[in-house]
Structure formats: structure tokens, C-alpha cells
Specification:
single chain; 12 helices; globular; disordered C terminus
């Protein structure tokens, strides 16, 4: 089995969008640089949305200018419409993420339009992206594993909507558990059905840890063949238009789980924890939910340590990416 995955850092976008406090541009740039230093190679920088709807991203032009010199990083951004897509391309964003919900009610709350209108918007953005060399486009489908307004959606409903997106020549789709309703059995059923029905599409997953099942769902997704995972530093995040939506899987927890299984992520865990410490300094008073950050990396002791009369040995600093 292939033992390599891609972790897409969504903290600068999904992690910050739900905060009531505005995070200044320089602080965002600091955070993104720390993530890049830790080995993250795909980072969602923010969203090109109305500042009235989400004021956190009113500085996208200045932000992208401040991170443009970082080498080897693919920066993406959410775009809700053609105007947002044009603005993202104009400032050099490599990858556009167009999002809409499989729940009509959530879509109306989130982007103020029907799903059919969202599909028309996607068609226009696809045509724009196809005309710009090296611009990529992915679609993020929200509420795949459950909606706070409409409850659980059937696998058939998911497949019908994926088919509509695939028909527009989209070749990467992220399936999102927007409010953390999903469980491993449901994840296996939906992902297996999607991969079987659409073998030419690359599927990614975006799990929230609202009910504590984020890592379990990610592991099941890996077992059925998914190799692209969204996560947010410190477990921040949530949808401001979905009641009950709380944080994402913590990037440090996901990377630690895969590292312990011998699955490469390219992430330096020590560097990632340093980025989490920076996040805590930048956002005083904001609770971080990552378990690895609270507990720290394991520091194995010699077998004799702790026996009567034998003092424990010194801490052992493990190099990144080894099997523990």
C-alpha cells in the first residue's frame, strides 16, 4: 500500500474565518511562513469573499503579496463566485477552491444561492481557470456527511451531485464533513462509492472533529484509498453559517498519527509544534484543541527507567519522519 499522503493546511483560511477578532496581515504572514518552514507544501491562504460577510479576509491582496516569495508552496484560496476567482488569479493564487453544499438549506445559508445556481457559477469559473495557464480548480462539497438543517444525506444523493461536478470536467473534489456528523462506517461507504463510480477523480477529505471522530474518519478514509487530507493547525476552524460547526482535525495530530504509522507527510513535527506555539502567541485567549500540542512528542526512556534506585535517563529528541 502506498505510504505517502498530502496534508493540506487550511488554518489560515478555515482556522481564522470563524474568529471574532481580526488577525492582522503581518501575523497571518508569520503563521504561513512557520507552516512552510515545518514542511507544509499546500496551504489555503484565505478566501476571496465579501468583507461584509467575512471581514477576516479583507486583506487578501496584501497577504498574498507578503507570501509570494515563499518557494515551493502551492497557495490556494476559496472563491464563492466569478469575481472572487478573478481577484484570486490577479494576485497569483495557484489554485482556486470553489465550494457549495449538497444541502439546499445550507447552501442558501452559506452562499445565498441554490445548488443549481452554484453549478452555473462553477461552470463560469471552470472556463476562466481553463483559460489561464497553470491555474488549478478544485471543488469542495460541503455537508457530504450530514447537514445541521437537513440531517444525513443519502449516498445516492452524494453520487448524483458528484456526477454533476464531474460533468464540468472537474478532476479534484474535496468531500467535507462540515459539522462533524460523520462516522467511520459512513465515511467508508460514501468514499468507496465515490471512488468506484468516479475512478478518474482525485478525492480529498475535510473532516471536523466536532464530536471527536475526526482522526478515526481520516484513518478510515486512508484505508479506502484517500491520500489528500485537509487539517488546521491547533484544531481551529468552523463554518460561521452552520450551527454547531467547530474545529477541524488538528494538523499536528493528523501528521503525528501518520508518522507513527510510517506514512510520509513531509512534515517536521518539531517544526509544526513550533508553529502551533506561534499560533498560541498570535491568538492569546483562543483555545487550541490539538492533543499533540498539549501532550508533546513521546520521549522514550530506557527500559530500566523508573525502577527503584535507577533514575530516569535524559529526554531523547527524535528526528522527524521516523517510525516510533
Amino acid at each position: 500500500m502506498e505510504k505517502e499522503v498530502t496534508v493540506i493546511e487550511v488554518g489560515p483560511r478555515d482556522g481564522l474565518q470563524n474568529l471574532s477578532q481580526y488577525v492582522g496581515t503581518e501575523k497571518k504572514i508569520q503563521l504561513i511562513k512557520a507552516l512552510a518552514d515545518a514542511g507544509l507544501r499546500e496551504i489555503q491562504a484565505g478566501a476571496f469573499v465579501s468583507p461584509r460577510a467575512i471581514p477576516q479576509f479583507r486583506d487578501m491582496k496584501e497577504l498574498t503579496a507578503g507570501i509570494a516569495s515563499l518557494p515551493g508552496i502551492k497557495f490556494s484560496a476559496l472563491v464563492p463566485n466569478l469575481r472572487g476567482a478573478r481577484e484570486a488569479i490577479a494576485v497569483g493564487i495557484d489554485k482556486l477552491i470553489y465550494f457549495f453544499s449538497l444541502s439546499e438549506t445550507h447552501n442558501l445559508n452559506n452562499v445565498r444561492q441554490t445548488r443549481e445556481a452554484s453549478l452555473l457559477g462553477l461552470k463560469a469559473i471552470r472556463e476562466l481557470a481553463a483559460s489561464i495557464p497553470q491555474t488549478e480548480l478544485t471543488v469542495a462539497l460541503a455537508t457530504v456527511f450530514g447537514c445541521p438543517f437537513e440531517g444525513f444525506l443519502s449516498t445516492g444523493h452524494v453520487l448524483r451531485n458528484v456526477e454533476k461536478v464531474a460533468a464540468l470536467d472537474i478532476r479534484e473534489i474535496t468531500l467535507c464533513d462540515t459539522v462533524g456528523f460523520g462516522n467511520p462506517r459512513q465515511v467508508e461507504e460514501i468514499l468507496t462509492a465515490c471512488r468506484d463510480a468516479f475512478p478518474d477523480i482525485t478525492f480529498a477529505v475535510h473532516f471536523h472533529n466536532t464530536r471527536g471522530l475526526g482522526l478515526a474518519n481520516a484513518l478510515r478514509a486512508y484505508d479506502v484509498g484517500i491520500r489528500r487530507f485537509d487539517a488546521a493547525l491547533g484544531g481551529l476552524g468552523g463554518c460561521p453559517f452552520a450551527p454547531g460547526a467547530s474545529g477541524n482535525i488538528a494538523t499536528e495530530d493528523l501528521a503525528f498519527m501518520f508518522a507513527g504509522m510510517g506514512i510520509a507527510t513531509g512534515i517536521d513535527l518539531e517544526g509544526l509544534l513550533e508553529a502551533t506555539r506561534l499560533l498560541e502567541r498570535l491568538l492569546p485567549g483562543v483555545a487550541l484543541s490539538g492533543s499533540l500540542y498539549r501532550a508533546g512528542l513521546p520521549r522514550p526512556q530506557p527500559p530500566e527507567a523508573g525502577r527503584e534506585g535507577i533514575p530516569p535517563g535524559p529526554e531523547i529528541s527524535l528526528p522527524p519522519h521516523q517510525d516510533w
